[in-house]
Write a structure and sequence with these properties.
By secondary structure, this protein is α/β, with parallel strands linked by helices. About 50% of the residues lie in helices and about 10% in strands. Strands 3-2-1-4-5 form a five-stranded parallel β-sheet, with helices on both faces. This is Hydrolase.
């Protein structure tokens, strides 16, 4: 079986995506600076997820540029960690995909600190044939280079790779690379796509 299957971490195996997580952690911020915090967070996040800056330095910059009190930062960091809610249905689906003989990969834009937390908290990550974390490869989705690394990590070509993500922007970028991309909706959708190959 030559087909490789690539799944996003957020929105497939974790119930919250980045946007949902951001809404959750914004609750920990003083309402007067919440809008600026959100804007700054999104501006600075790619640099962190690409591993170009340490978590500690990133949080310092975020506090300085967003006007968030330094005392709130630890609360925000704890709130962010609490967004790691496992989607058991997605995990069960991936297990069945693996059992069916598909080589599978896990793909995520993620900071070094959260990547470490994910590896510590979720032993099942090691079940995937390839784990592609943006902080490890120095580039984030939707950059084409990130998809190149993912496909290569799976030992495949773009045309032999099927990708599932809840994020339309990422799916569009994958399709531009020649990857068969789908906006993730449900485990049943994954089974239907793979059965049709």
């Amino acid at each position: 079986m030559s087909t490789r299957v690539l799944f996003d971490l957020y929105g497939v195996f974790l119930t919250r995506g980045v946007e949902d997580s951001l809404l959750h952690i914004t609750d920990a911020v003083n309402a007067e600076v919440a809008q600026q915090f959100r804007k700054t967070y999104l501006e600075l996040r790619p640099e962190l997820e690409a591993g170009h800056i340490s978590d500690e330095r990133w949080w310092q910059q975020l506090a300085l540029r967003s006007g968030v009190d330094n005392g709130e930062i630890s609360e925000i960091a704890r709130a962010l960690e609490s967004t790691f809610e496992l989607n058991a249905e997605g995990l069960e689906m991936a297990s069945k995909v693996m059992d069916a003989g598909f080589v599978t990969g896990l793909f995520a834009n993620i900071s070094p600190g959260l990547a470490q937390l994910a590896r510590e908290r979720f032993a099942w990550i090691e079940d995937f044939a390839a784990v592609i974390f943006s902080c490890d490869i120095g580039v984030c989705k939707p950059d084409a280079a990130a998809f190149d690394v993912a496909v290569e990590s799976l030992g495949a070509t773009a045309k032999d790779t099927v990708y599932f993500s809840p994020t339309q922007e990422f799916v569009d970028a994958a399709r531009q690379m020649g990857i068969d991309g789908f906006v993730y909706q449900s485990p049943q959708q994954v089974f239907e796509v793979l059965d049709a190959l």
